[in-house]
Amino acid sequence: MVAKRIVPCLDVKDGRVVKGVQFVNLQDAGDPVELAAFYDKAGADELVFLDITASFEGRETMVEVARRTAKEVFIPFIIGGGIGTIDQIRNILKAGADKVSLNTPAVENPALIKEGARIFGSQCIVVAIDARWNEEKQDWDVYTHGGRKVTGLSAVEWAARVEELGAGEILLTSMNADGGRDGFDIPLNRAVAEKVSIPVIASGGAGTMEHFAQVLTEGKADAALAASVFHYRHFEISELKKYLNQQSVEVRII
Amino acid sequence: MGNVTSVGNGFARLGFQTILTDDQERLSRCHALVLPGVGAFGSAMDELRRKGLLDFLKEQQQKGVYILGICLGLQLFFENSEEDSGCDGIGFFPGQVTRFPVGLKVPHMGWSSIMLEKPDPLFESIPSGSYFYFAHSYYAPWSEKKDIDPLARCNYNVDFAAAIKKDNVYGLQFHPEKSGEIGLKILENFGRMVLHGNHSGN
Predict the structure, then answer these.
(1) pLDDT tens, B63-94?
(2) What distance, in Å, lies between the first and last C-alpha atoms of chain B?
(3) Which listed CATH number (3.30.300.20, 3.20.20.70, 2.40.70.10, 3.40.50.720) goes with A5-246?
(4) What is the ipTM of this complex?
(5) Total CB pairs under 8 A between chain A and B
(6) Is B41 on the interface with A (CB under 8 A)?
(7) Catalytic one of A45, A51, A130, A222
(8) Contact residues, chain A, for B155 at CB < 8 Å
(9) Residues of B in contact with A199 (CB under 8 A)
(10) Are the CB atoms for A29 and A17 separated by under 8 Å?
(11) Nearest CA to CA, how far is A199 from chain B (Å)?
(12) Residue A54: partners with Cβ closer than 8 Å, 6 or more residues away
């Protein structure tokens, strides 16, 4: 069948990796390409570069990051953040990225998903959904603009809608769990994964190896994304995969 | 689109020169041809036809030039596909490309292990059971036909061809350019095969 994927995420600002990354053996831990190559060797199955640059000029550097990464790293990678037009998608993919992840622009202009999938194929179009539990509604709300703006959308419904529009994958971030290291949001991931028939990448809350096992089994996610546990080397990817393998989760061991 | 760049990057890393062109004059001077999969079956065939590359590919195949199809490239080598409500392919391989059944997560996206069924120089030093990266919604059903060599099998609820060969034409359903070190090894094996046993006369 298909192995569950372990996906490190790199936050990039103006072409540099932010969030203190602790790698003693890297010459330049701020260089996204060097870090990507490190994770490739460490056994990552895929990488996400999340552009958190505010300015337009800064964003242009992401195309360059994609181009350089594609020359050095031979595993799939996703570029997300600030991509809102077909031309931007084209430039990023042409540079060698495998997928783009669309967030706010997908909500504001759902036609972008459809058009992107039609031109480049569903496998290139990932829709990122930021979701937070709404106690009153007893449902998850979709947020945009980096979590600053609540939309009227239900995360589960929106996930089904983006699948219909042609998205090939969902990058699902739980805002409740994000940054907490208390575990992935199992109910959210499960609800979305059961609703759609495209792969779900779970994001937010990774703290221990058990958390990964949980979201990839109970949470029914196809891939698990994390940043700080890998950057701060709480455990190595090889260690994590060995553990998952022992838990009967199929992973690619290199 | 992205994988065209990445296939070129992969070969470059291994010291093989590639050019990206639709110019037959330039293509006919190459030692091998690589058709990386881009987009949908129907539009890819239309493009090949429009550019006169369909006949060109058949000529090159006849001449014995090595041809490698990746992902959609492999699919185009079959007689036809269910994609885009039914399309004719190039027809190097007999059979039809079909869509994964309903109820499965489609695209089949991610790393799956493949079983090597027949020794071939393309898979030299690659252990059976190795993981490769896949991203596709259609597949070539696994079958053992007399006039083709299915080299490797993969299973995603159904058995399908991960690698297939007929004479000088190879097809890979997975992305060697995105399958890490082991994927690059396949590109290297292909490059070596071309240099050592090329029939193109160049």
Answers:
(1) 999 999 999 999 999 999 998 888 999 999 99
(2) 29
(3) 3.20.20.70
(4) 0.92
(5) 107
(6) no
(7) A130
(8) 1
(9) 105, 107, 109-110
(10) yes
(11) 7
(12) none
